[in-house]
Design goal:
- The complex is a heterodimer of chains A (655) and B (207).
- Chain A is mainly beta.
- With 207 residues, chain B is mainly beta.
- Classes of the chains: A mainly beta (655), B mainly beta (207).
- At the A-B interface, β12, β13, β14, β15 and β16 of A face α1 and β13 of B.
């Protein structure tokens, strides 16, 4: 930790001092004096000004002013969605498609796979990807304060894995002197969600503790065989956040969280073998963030430790021949130092990240591997004009990985606000994704399915160049429109290739031979015609192309859309929310006629519809709610394993 | 409650939760380990069942990746030869999907075999006069395995990796010079485990 502070100080000295002092006094950095500008703005813009985001630049800014386009899901929206996990919340977010596979529920952003999206919690990397996917269903929603989604490469700030985008889950902060909350819901599939939270805020102290219990039965979309589709699950977590602040210029934040999840399901292979599968996953996260705030600068140092442990048991029915038991421990320690300094029209950020990861698993050879990553980053946000507002952010990061050497990731982003109605943003940058330990060292044989997968320690990182241009416009106070075009070009993508196809056992290996592109458009609109009624809709198109095989990348929709209606009459305390999502046709590839050539397997489009009705009682201390998810009962056992239609109801008590 | 008490009590809760018990210990509890008892022992990995009319149905557990399972047809016994490459104790050797005969590159027993297509097991009543081959070293093909005389017994599904027996009947001439007809009936046991052969076989009278 001390060395990280020193590194940051040295870098601050190196990088900040050469900047020429401003010729004359200029206004303090823009983000602090925007409230005057916003006074005449429509209501939603006030919300944009009030909402503070951090993900796009690693510094706190208002959503209206951040030069990097950021999509925010607020705590209110999390609660209104009825989602009890990050996955259930994000499935309703415009421009987001979820994938469901062996790695759990992952996110596809802008036509790219879950492995290209980095998932952060309070700015810290999380660990425990399976098959490239960070399972979003493992993050309970009760402790989520805000979700920030930044599309496009974030490697310039966060390093590896942020090619398609970065999702930063900001945990809840106490907001009032005393807070207490109990939330209980019961629904179909005997789903129970029970959470509680207490928080205490004093002049120099803010602390909270929360706990949650979530359980659900599994489900089966194809009763013709013994295999099930969705896992039964029992998850519980406890966590706390403790902050001491304004101790002179110093503040200190400590967090700790423990989560355990048990999942079980029944699998069947092509030869008819039936397996009872169980996973027990534990996640421990501990963080410590000291921060020093001075008048025009701040130094923040953070350290965190993340453990992901997964025990997997496969019990073959009627035999022990194919039984398996595996224990995986993934440790990730991170230390970060970041120094922010405002000089005239410039807001300069320099930082250093240290990361050490150790993986122990029966499936890799050797069974214990480790790596370290050292990174330095520098960013300058230059605001040459406040009206019209112009901001330019230029940054670069240098990662040194003990396996791949040095990877530089630059980015430039631009924001123009020619009038208060328009905001235009553009960015161009580089992203990279480091091969996972599994891709490098996996030694996995599946004799029942007849294949062997071998890692490749010689893999290089996957890299990308991405550009995007977006515009937001509010022509009238009741209408908001946004649009974005994006283009990602990925090189050296890692694909699984057949190494040896002779005989019964096919040997697969990982190779850096792929090349992919994804380009498209994302649009959204929101309008509020009558006071209690708001409508919103979105449409996204992504053309994701496998350059190597000259075909569309499998398993993602080219077209998708969302539509929402929200009725909220505050005087009555009544709210109704209707959300619909539509996903277009997706293509998969499989050799169905035995000619060793893969054939296109299109899956039909589908729509989901969710309804939720809420009623506040007793001066909003009680919120009763009821709803239905997947009213149209979309989904099937193979290509679209989404949970069936379920009804639920419950109550949230708040003090 | 004071700040420090609050802090320490919440931290205590976290520390005390610790790590979860091991799941692996729940394996092999007998609930799903009900391998069928042997009808008639031929050896640890070989069981026989008489179907009548001189037809034997053998279940041969060749699941091990390394160990060959050797069978002598005349005695119906599983064998464990010290040097299989130079032994007249065995007729058929099985390991995973590979089936060796004691001849050619596999052994010194001089065995040969014929593959018959377009017929059925019951229809084969005489010993073929031509088409006899034996195991040979790896030739010019995709794999690196020896070219077994009985290596065409299955169809392979590249998508599911499932092996399905072809409708073929083999006739083998054993080390002792007796002829048997052999049909591979399956490669999976009732639990779906691969490498467990079902083999139907019967002696053919010299004609």
């Amino acid at each position: 930790m001390v060395s990280a502070v020193l590194v940051a100080r040295m870098m601050a000295g190196l990088l900040v001092e050469p900047v020429a002092p401003p010729p004359e006094p200029v206004p303090v950095p823009a983000r602090q004096d925007d409230e005057d500008e916003a006074l005449d703005e429509p209501e939603a813009d006030d919300e944009q000004v009030r909402t503070i985001v951090v993900t796009g630049t690693r510094t706190e800014q208002s959503l209206a002013d951040t030069p990097v386009a950021t999509q925010v899901v607020s705590r209110t929206e999390v609660e209104e969605s009825g989602g009890e996990s990050l996955a259930e919340v994000l499935e309703q977010v415009p421009g987001v498609a979820l994938t469901r596979g062996v790695g759990g529920t992952g996110i596809q952003l802008q036509g790219l796979d879950p492995r290209y999206t980095l998932v952060l919690v309070d700015g810290q990397r999380t660990t425990g990807r399976v098959d490239g996917t960070m399972d979003l269903s493992r993050f309970p929603a009760e402790d989520v304060g805000q979700i920030e989604i930044v599309r496009g490469p974030g490697s310039v700030l966060y390093g590896a894995d942020a090619l398609a985008g970065t999702i930063n889950v900001i945990t809840r902060r106490p907001t009032r002197p005393h807070e207490a909350e109990v939330h209980a819901a019961y629904g179909g599939l005997r789903t129970v969600d029970l959470t509680g939270r207490v928080a205490l805020t004093r002049e120099r102290y803010a602390g909270s503790a929360s706990a949650g219990l979530h359980r659900t039965d599994g489900w089966d979309a194809d009763p013709s065989d013994v295999a099930t589709t969705g896992s039964a699950q029992a998850l519980w977590r406890v966590g706390t956040r403790q902050e001491l602040r304004e101790l002179g210029p110093l503040s200190l934040l400590g967090t700790a969280d423990y989560l355990r999840r048990d999942q079980s399901r029944v699998d069947m292979d092509a030869a008819g073998a039936v397996f009872d599968r169980r996973n027990r996953t534990e996640v421990i996260t501990v963080g410590l963030v000291p921060r020093i705030e001075l008048s025009a600068s701040s130094l923040r140092v953070s350290g965190s430790y993340n453990l992901w442990r997964d025990q997997f048991v496969q019990d073959q029915r009627g035999s022990t021949a194919l039984d398996q038991s595996q224990d995986t421990w993934d440790h990730l320690a991170q230390a970060t130092a970041q120094y922010d300094h405002a000089i005239g029209q410039h807001a300069v950020t320099v930082g250093a990240d240290l990361q050490a990861e150790v993986l122990r698993s029966d499936r890799i050879e050797p069974t214990r591997v480790d790596r370290q990553r050292y990174a330095i980053l520098a960013q300058d946000e230059w605001t040459p004009s406040l009206a019209p507002r112009v901001a330019v952010v230029a940054g670069a990061r240098l990662d040194l990985d003990t396996y791949f050497g040095i990877y530089p990731t630059p980015r430039i982003a631009l924001m123009l606000r020619p009038s208060e109605r328009w905001t235009i943003r553009a960015s161009y940058g580089r992203g990279y994704r480091a091969p996972s330990f599994r891709e490098m060292f996996l030694q996995f044989a599946n004799p029942s399915a007849g294949y062997v997968v071998r890692g490749n320690a010689e893999l290089r990182p996957e890299t990308s160049w991405s550009s995007s241009v977006s515009a937001e416009v509010r022509p009238w106070s009741w209408l908001w429109l946004s649009g974005q075009v994006f283009d990602h070009r990925l090189q050296d993508t890692i694909v699984v290739d057949t190494v040896d196809d002779g005989g019964e056992v096919t040997q697969f290996g990982y190779v850096n031979v792929g090349e992919a592109q994804s380009r498209g458009v994302e649009t959204a609109a929101a309008l509020s015609v009558l006071e209690p009624l708001a409508l919103e809709g979105s449409y996204a198109f992504a053309h994701a192309w496998d350059v190597e095989n000259q075909r569309l990348l499998p398993g993602r929709p080219r077209h998708q859309g969302t539509a929402g209606l929200r009725f909220h009459r505050r005087r009555w305390g009544t709210s109704l929310r209707v959300r619909a999502t539509i996903q277009g046709r997706r293509l998969f590839y499989a050799d169905v006629d035995g000619d060793a050539v893969e054939d296109e397997q299109p899956t039909p489009p589908f729509a989901t519809l969710d309804l939720r009705l809420g009623q506040a009682l007793l001066a909003e201390h009680v919120q009763a709610f009821a709803g239905v998810e997947n009213l149209l009962d979309a989904g099937d056992a193979t290509t679209n394993p989404i949970p069936p239609r379920t009804f639920y109801g419950g109550v949230t008590l708040r003090y | 409650m004071s700040t420090s008490t609050w802090f320490s009590s919440t931290m205590m809760v976290l520390v005390m939760t610790g790590c979860a018990p091991d799941l692996g210990e729940t394996l092999g509890d007998g609930s799903s380990t009900t391998d069928a008892p042997a009808e008639e022992g031929g050896g640890p990995q070989v069981q026989h069942e008489d179907e009548g009319d001189g037809v034997t149905v053998s279940t041969i557990d060749a699941t091990d990746q390394e160990q060959w399972i050797y069978l002598d047809l005349e005695s119906r016994e599983q064998r464990d030869p010290a040097d299989p490459a130079d032994s007249d104790e065995w007729d058929l050797g099985l390991r995973r999907f590979a089936i060796a005969i004691n001849g050619g590159s596999s052994g010194t027993g001089g065995m040969e075999a014929v593959m018959l297509e377009g017929t059925t097991f019951d229809a084969v009543t005489s010993i073929p006069t031509e088409g006899w081959v034996t195991d040979a070293p790896d030739g010019d093909d995709e794999n690196e395995d020896p070219d077994y005389a009985l290596d065409e017994w299955y169809d392979y599904d590249f998508m599911t990796h499932v092996l399905t027996p072809k409708p073929v009947v083999y006739v083998v001439r054993t080390v002792e010079g007796n002829a048997y007809k052999v049909e591979i009936g399956g490669y999976y046991d009732e639990a779906g485990t691969s490498g467990v052969f079902t083999v139907r076989w019967a002696a053919l009278a010299p004609g």
